[in-house]
Amino acid sequence: MSKSNLIKRIIFIILVIIIILLSYSFLYGKLFPYSPLKIGFSKYEMQNTIIYVQNETGFSDFERVDTLIPAVENFHQLKFIRKPEIFIFKDSSSYIQRSPSKARFCVFYNGRLVISPWALREASENKISLEIYIRHELSHSLIYQHTGIINGYRYPKWLLEGIAVYSSNQMGTSFYPSKQKTYELIRKGYFMPPGYYGTNDEDKINLDIENSIAFVYSEFACIVNYLIQKYGLEKFLTYMKALIDNPDNDRIFRKIYSTDFGKFISEFREYVNNTSD
To answer: Where would I find the H helices in 155-248?
Structure first.
């Protein structure tokens, strides 16, 4: 065999291995949320959603989920481009095998939402509200459908969470501190700078408190609340939508609100420290 033929054969074998690995990952691994095939799932197409249930799961409360869409669209003043796809898993091992996230719920940049078995269990035990959590995640899904994958990745992560918590009325439920409790913690010095969230700088912030992630999400919701309280919902929605096409937060914030984002955050912290709310 000539050297050139040997090289071609090696390249062919490598390509075959890559294709096999990618195929497995799309069907049974971490790329499953982006897979065009849903092996082992039953499809239920509803008026507003498409719900995929892994076989033997036993979940059947489809209407309850489907009716959440109008409220999500109404707050954001946006329509889903296509019916959001929701995946419900039968057991923890299947979920961990196919989901890149170990969170109760997770939305990916293509807008698909996956729901863990323990989330359903906690909802049945009244530890969390299934409706509130799904509305939270549908907020992400709606924005991601409009941004696309690239701008979805670049969209300010603090704002995504702040909008989701605020629009679903999540503060004060389950593990999330209320607005009043969040303000109390901020006055004690606990604060996650929005620009740090989702970056390496996040580790620089000491949040030695119970359910620190829930606190951070509520903090971001409080920032959203303050923006709406001070400037109005219409201007806030203009800001939210402008970031869909250009996720440059500093530039868009300055254009919409005529002030620097950093200056606004300092103003927010001063407001919290001087209010009895």
So the answer is: 157-167, 179-187, 212-231, 233-245
